[in-house]
Design goal:
three-stranded antiparallel sheet; 3 helices; about 40% helix; globular; alpha+beta; 3 strands; about 70 residues
Amino acid sequence: MTVKHLNQQELAERWDCSAASLERWRCEGIGPVFMKLHGRVLYRIEDVEAYEAQCLRTSTSQPLTAGGAA
């Protein structure tokens, strides 16, 4: 089994946000789990997809889960 990873720029492009936003969110504990490997930040695609699934809502009044919300 091969594990696919996204780097910071790839995730920023996927979510149409800036790399700086991802950096800030990591400092605030927001977003998917990540790994640092030799100074590089990497996100496993399965963790990104799990986080995206947690962010799905059917109503604006639905409460956010811990660590959720971008």
